[in-house]
Amino acid sequence: MKSILVWDWSIRVSHWLMVLLFTGLIITGRFERAYFDYHFYLGYSLSALVVFRVIYGFYGSRYAKFSQFIKAPKVVVHYLRSFLKGKPNRHLGHNPLGALMVVALLIGLTLQWGSGLFTSDDLFWTGPLNAYLAEDWQSWMAWLHHVLPDILLWLVGLHVAAVFYHELCLKERLVSAMIHGKKRTHQARPESITTPRWGVLFALLMGGAWLVWLWLLPV
């Protein structure tokens, strides 16, 4: 087996930053007023990171692209059957089920930070875009923002369980791959990915521009 680079530095860094920011948001969200300023800034940072990852999903390295790992439903079903039999096919990038988890988490996180921009407790804090919505929509956004964390935690738990299954049962070292970026393969002539400079720069500029715009909004 040969070891090749699959996840470039931008994917690895953004992955672990999402872990840290999401953890910080869960913690600060539980403390209500005590750390809520930090909650806002962590949410802004996470939103910029998600913007970066979505842009990079179109202009990034080979295995970071949505077009590479999002598969047709029949492919997902076929993989699910092989997974339930304990003999799933190996994939250098995301497997079809892992791809669904990536999409679900990105959508869930986007809904979470997006709803937070419109949410208010009508007393101590107000999202920067709250005034732009009608009262009914404000209530719906507040409900969504309070319900989604539990759903996201379940998704994260499922994701971690799947990683442990691959690590312990399938002997596929996913955790270390997300640290050094390399995976082992049986391919005769494996090709390591390269990081597209302009893709990274464009995604960073879009994420940075979004973050600056949020910081300039009055709270």
From TrEMBL:
InterPro entries: Cyt_b561_bac/Ni-Hgenase, Di-haem_cyt_TM, Hydrogenase_cytochrome. GO terms for biological process: respiratory electron transport chain. Residues 6-181 form the Cytochrome b561 bacterial/Ni-hydrogenase domain. One of its GO terms (molecular function) is electron transfer activity. One of its GO terms (cellular component) is plasma membrane. It comes from the Bacteria. It is found in: Cell membrane. The chain crosses the membrane at residues 12-29, 41-59, 97-115, 151-170, 198-216. It is a multi-pass membrane protein. Gene3D superfamilies: Transmembrane di-heme cytochromes, Chain C. Keywords: Cell membrane, Membrane, Transmembrane, Transmembrane helix. Its main location: membrane. This is Cytochrome b. It comes from Marinomonas pollencensis.
